[in-house]
Specification:
alpha+beta, Ubiquitin-like (UB roll), Aldehyde Oxidoreductase, domain 3, five-stranded mixed beta sheet
């Protein structure tokens, strides 16, 4: 059988552009695939120490079996109707319009988190940021965050928009808006969504400084997702 291997962010260069098709024995597991890639020198243990694996846009455990045609992604820690409220965009994010769109008569509060590109990181002057995502999986995870936040905090609505591509200093990279009858729930839900997005949604940023460029360190995956913790 054949599976399609892809990778993103700091792990992007381990496979060719567009990914790699690989022949495996029928019934091979995620663990077997990773062992094979290690044995062949395609990946090293330190690359996978904090990585996660996704199969067909869903996080997968080591014991998950693979099928012909599956897409297997290696994901470094992430550095993000509901189709309108949950978006990945490549143009500027209009925070004012999003806040206006999410409001309803039953709301007593709208809490907005507007993440913007700052002009430095730990004293290094920033020129711009480049964001990329495992897009289908990122959108699915963002939709799930919206549903979970509504259920967990009892808020009425949640909007999550993340920008991809090149962003300049002062531009919005991610916008989260939460509408609720009560401000406490809106604040709590907004904080939970951005914190969880930063840990689980496969979006990465590359920081371009005046003296070089680096992939931003991602936050550790939650327990049970990182490959090395299983």
């Amino acid at each position: 059988m054949r599976v399609h291997l892809v990778s993103f962010g700091p792990l992007k260069t381990i496979f060719p552009e567009g990914g790699l098709w690989r022949e495996l024995r029928v019934g091979e597991s995620v663990a077997g695939l990773l062992a094979l890639l290690r044995h062949e020198g395609v990946v090293a243990d330190d690359m996978l120490r904090s990585a996660a694996v996704a199969v067909n846009h869903e996080y997968a455990g080591l014991d998950q079996g693979l099928c012909d045609g599956d897409e297997v992604a290696l994901l470094p820690p992430v550095s993000g109707g509901s189709e309108v409220l949950v978006q990945l965009v490549r143009g500027p994010i209009d925070a004012v319009t999003m806040e206006r769109e999410i409001k309803a008569g039953a709301d007593g509060a709208v809490c907005v988190f507007d993440g913007i590109v700052r002009n430095n990181t730990r004293g290094r002057q920033t020129l711009h940021l480049d964001y990329e995502a495992y897009e289908e999986m990122a959108l699915r995870q963002m939709h799930e965050l919206r549903v979970q936040a509504i259920a967990k905090f009892g808020v009425r609505e949640v909007a999550i928009v993340h920008r991809l591509g090149r962003l300049l200093v002062g531009e919005t990279s991610v916008l989260i808006a939460v509408a609720s009858a009560h401000r406490g729930a809106a604040f709590d839900a907004c904080r939970w969504v951005i914190d969880t997005l930063k840990k689980t949604v496969p979006i990465w940023k590359r920081e371009q400084f005046v003296d070089g460029a680096v992939w931003a360190d991602g936050e550790p995956f939650p327990e049970g997702i990182a490959e090395a913790k299983r």
